[in-house]
């Protein structure tokens, strides 16, 4: 994100502080959403690929 701000400030010297804060906030939100989505997918895949839990026959009444 900082490289985007640096490049933007060189190409557009009239970058305001509000624009810089907007880029930082937007980039941070993007990263948080991406991380959250990735973790949810990993957990779903791990739960799907997990072997079935062992069954205790004493609890089933058999």
From TrEMBL:
Taxonomic superkingdom: Bacteria
Residue ranges of the TM segments: 20-38
Alphabetical UniProt keywords: Membrane, Transmembrane, Transmembrane helix
Protein name per the record: Natural resistance-associated macrophage protein
């Amino acid at each position: 994100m900082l490289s985007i701000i640096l490049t933007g400030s060189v190409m557009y010297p009239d970058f305001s502080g509000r624009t810089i804060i907007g880029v930082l906030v937007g980039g941070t939100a993007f990263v948080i959403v991406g991380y959250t989505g990735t973790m949810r997918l990993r957990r779903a895949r791990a739960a799907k690929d997990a072997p079935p839990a062992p069954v205790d026959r004493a609890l089933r009444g058999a």
